[in-house]
Write a structure and sequence with these properties.
Membrane topology: Multi-pass membrane protein
Number of strands: 2
Strand order of the largest sheet: 1-2
Order of helices and strands: EEHHHHHHHHHHHHHHHHH
Largest sheet: 2 strands, antiparallel
Helix content: over 70%
Pfam families: MatE (PF01554)
Radius of gyration: 22 Å
Main location: membrane
Strand content: under 5%
InterPro entries: DinF-like, MATE_fam
Number of helices: 17
Shape: globular
Organism: Aminobacter carboxidus
């Protein structure tokens, strides 16, 4: 079987190691630039020597991240639908998907900006911190939320770019966004002495810069294509499909947030030292996630493109190659953390008690890359194929398994039981999706063949 390319040529659709790496490597580098924002912001505010400012910055960042993680569906959903349109050779639908996502992003962003005081109050209530920390949190959240429309539109831009497999362009935009953020953080926060407010305004400026550059490039590209009818963009059925896809991805994201919040809460029951040690070790899991997300992004684009093209051999090859690369990377990261983990713990924490506790549980954290890689890969495949209902349902099943384990394992095995519950969450999620992958693919591609 063959598919029509965006230019109208009929060509074979092949998936190679090169096509996987062309998406995965730039996206991994793009994801890895993100932690530098937090490091620079913390370093800038830390120069003022005020713990309340650092605490407020950290608390505000958590409040902001919780809200925006919930809206990550805009990026993932756009990637899936653009990739499928790309596979069909439907350039008009690619553009229409993008503008629908922008409409949703703009409306949601304005609502978030207007309700920033409520987000701040919710963050203060959850943190239960001292008054000066709450004051800092309030200033940070109110400023950051002004950039909500820019941030969400950037999700739509990134989703469109990834849907077309343009990893290099995505890296350029993310590096620009994060670079502007870092430079202005230092300028406003440190040199002009604005502190937390300077760091918050820098984040808004970075989002604005990324949006302006991204839109400028895409508008120029769209200007060379036939004019898109407004009714095509605002097609009710297409919007409904986008909302259903986004709803399922949002439920998945919220379920993950609940799991990690419960993990942190349970760790706190074991005392401050254990809580801090787990926080140090979770950095390793998060770092592994940045690497694995690159290959998950490749799986999204290639799987979605294959479904759009109704070309099952490319789908199978994408699943195989992305998984092989993912497992190889996960194994390498686990080995690296086992070798260098003690030194990394020493760099992150100066407390001897925290270091000792973190070293004791280092193997549990190091192996999260291997236990989680299948979940990352399956997630990318199911998002790209727009099998969002299955992904949502399996995430809920995994969350229930995690909660059940949480009620039993920590009671008998302490913090080791807590980490075992986290591994169970990751493994169950990956295996559940793997179990239904073959029948779901068979049904999708057989229905496509029947339609032809």
């Amino acid at each position: 079987m063959e598919y029509a390319s965006p230019e109208g040529r009929v060509t074979p659709f092949s998936v190679t190691n090169r096509s996987v790496l062309a998406i995965a490597v730039p996206m991994t580098l793009a994801y890895l630039t993100t932690p530098f924002i937090g490091l620079v912001g913390t370093g800038v505010v830390g120069q003022f020597g005020d713990a309340a400012l650092l605490g407020g910055l950290a608390a505000g960042a958590v409040a902001f991240d919780v809200v925006f993680t919930s809206f990550n569906f805009l990026r993932a959903g756009t990637t899936a639908l653009v990739a499928q349109a790309f596979g069909r050779g439907d350039a008009s639908e690619e553009q229409a998907v993008f503008w629908r996502a922008v409409v949703i992003a703009l409306i949601a962003g304005i609502v978030l900006a207007l309700t920033a005081p409520l987000t701040s109050l919710a963050g203060q209530w959850f943190m239960q911190a001292e008054p000066r920390v709450n004051e800092t949190l309030d200033h940070y959240v109110r400023i950051r939320m002004l950039g909500a429309p820019f941030a969400l539109i950037n999700y739509a831009i990134l989703g469109y770019i990834l849907g077309r497999g343009e990893g290099g362009f995505a890296l350029f935009l993310q590096a620009t966004l994060n670079g502007v953020n870092i430079v202005i953080s230092i300028l406003l926060g440190l040199h002009l002495g604005w502190g937390v407010e300077g760091v918050a305004w820098a984040a808004v400026a970075g989002e604005l810069a990324g949006m302006v550059i991204g839109l400028a490039v895409l508008l120029r590209r769209f200007g060379r294509e036939p004019r898109l009818a407004r009714r095509r963009i605002f097609d009710a059925a297409a919007f409904r499909r986008l909302f259903v896809l986004n709803r399922d991805i949002m439920i998945r994201s919220l379920s993950l947030l609940i799991a990690f919040a419960l993990f942190t809460r349970q760790g706190a029951q074991f005392g401050t030292v254990t809580l801090a040690a787990n926080a140090v070790l979770m950095n390793f899991f998060i770092a592994a996630g940045f690497f694995l997300d690159g290959f998950a992004a490749a799986a999204e684009q290639l799987a979605g493109r294959a479904v759009g093209a109704r070309y099952e051999p490319a789908f199978r090859k994408a699943v195989y190659l992305c998984s092989i690369w993912g497992f190889a990377l996960a194994g390498s990261m686990t080995a690296a953390l086992m070798v260098f983990g003690v030194d990394l713990i020493a760099l992150i924490s100066t407390s001897q008690d925290v270091r000792a506790a973190a070293i004791a549980f280092l193997p549990w954290a190091a192996f999260t890359a291997l236990s989680g890689v299948l979940a990352f890969q399956m997630d990318g495949i199911f998002i790209g194929a727009a099998w969002s209902r299955d992904m949502r349902n399996m995430m809920v099943v995994s969350l229930l398994a995690f909660i059940a384990a949480l009620l039993v394992l920590p009671t008998h095995y302490g913090n080791a039981g807590l980490w075992a519950a986290l591994h169970l969450l990751l493994i169950v999620r990956g295996l559940c999706l793997l179990a239904i992958l073959k029948p779901r693919a068979r049904a999708t591609f057989q229905s496509g063949a029947a339609a032809h």
